[in-house]
Write a structure and sequence with these properties.
Layout: E1 9-16, E2 19-25, H1 26-29, H2 35-42, E3 52-57, E4 64-70, E5 75-76, H3 80-94, E6 98-103, E7 106-114, E8 117-121, E9 150-153, E10 157-162, H4 171-179, E11 189-197, E12 200-207, E13 211-213, H5 217-230, E14 236-241, E15 244-251, E16 254-260, E17 262-269
Parallel strand pairs: 2-3, 4-6, 10-11, 12-14
Antiparallel strand pairs: 1-2, 1-17, 3-4, 4-5, 6-7, 7-8, 8-16, 9-10, 11-12, 12-13, 14-15, 15-16
């Protein structure tokens, strides 16, 4: 990154349902985050720790642009909970209740729903095998993988398993095996979920480049889409994650997710550490 050793770097720590983020506002600092910095800051013992690092930049056709890094230094095309967190902060800072954000996913709309809830339209799900992407032509509704999972793209790839009891799955073993499945050339996020009711699911998440997480916005969108496509639920569902509950509504204009956000603290990365 373009920061001299003597330059401190301000950051914010946020989370959505325990899915936690470091946020760097490059508009204010002029810095540029790279993979090495992302890995260093993401170290929970020697850095700050996060599931994703979100970088805010200016953009010509949106209120702001967001870029995402995983804790292992790889980039992520989408991060729904971080998008909601930054949107909530920026809307409060500007005194507005609607905001546009540019990500690799495209141009997204965020809304303040009141009572501490922020909604983001994550766009239409990607259902074509080439675009998710998969390594070969396969039915995305019934992948040729043990457990009969569903593949969905939400700006990043997802592999969703419907099981008898999501809490009984050993994600630490199950997750990495499927994250690196050869059918997913860019690796994949992995979800296990069970149906509680036609409008209610229980889900747990393994995120590529991160591991087990308490929540994931894009994973929640993917599971909701997969469940609706399978006829297991309707298109508006409540999802209980390890970190709390999120609402997903797959509408004609895209997949909306609504939930709480938290701005935990502000900090400064010391220049001598950088």
């Amino acid at each position: 990154m373009s920061v001299t050793p003597s330059s401190d770097l301000p950051f914010m720590k946020m989370h959505g349902l325990g899915n936690d983020f470091v946020v760097v506002d490059e508009r204010a600092t002029g810095a540029r985050v790279d993979s090495g910095l992302a890995r260093a800051v993401g170290d929970r013992q020697r850095g700050v720790g996060f599931d994703q690092l979100a970088v805010i930049r200016d953009h010509g056709d949106a209120d702001l642009e967001l870029l995402f890094w995983n804790a292992d230094g790889t980039t992520a095309g989408a991060c729904g909970n971080a998008t909601r967190c930054v949107a909530a902060w920026e809307m409060a800072r500007r005194g507005i209740d609607r905001l546009t954000l540019r990500t690799e996913r495209g141009l997204l709309l965020a809304e303040d729903r009141g009572q501490g809830l922020t909604a983001v339209n994550m766009g239409e799900p990607i259902l074509d095998w080439r675009a998710i992407p998969l390594a070969q032509d396969a039915c995305t509704l019934h992948l040729p993988i043990d457990g009969d999972p569903v593949a969905t793209g939400m700006g990043n790839p997802h592999c969703s398993f419907f099981v008898a009891d999501a809490e009984a799955v050993d994600l630490a073993t199950f997750g990495p095996v499927h994250e690196h499945h050869p059918l997913f050339p860019e690796r994949t996020n992995v979800q296990v979920a069970h149906i509680v009711a036609p409008d209610h699911l229980r889900m747990r998440v393994w995120e590529r480049g991160v591991g087990v997480t308490l929540a994931s916005g894009s994973s929640s969108c993917a599971v909701a889409v997969a469940a609706a496509r399978r006829g297991l639920t309707g298109r508006a569902v409540r999802i209980d994650l390890d970190g709390g509950t999120i609402q997903i509504d797959w509408r004609d204009d895209g997949v909306w997710m609504t939930g709480p956000t938290a701005h935990v603290f502000d900090g400064v990365l010391r220049g001598d550490w950088l």
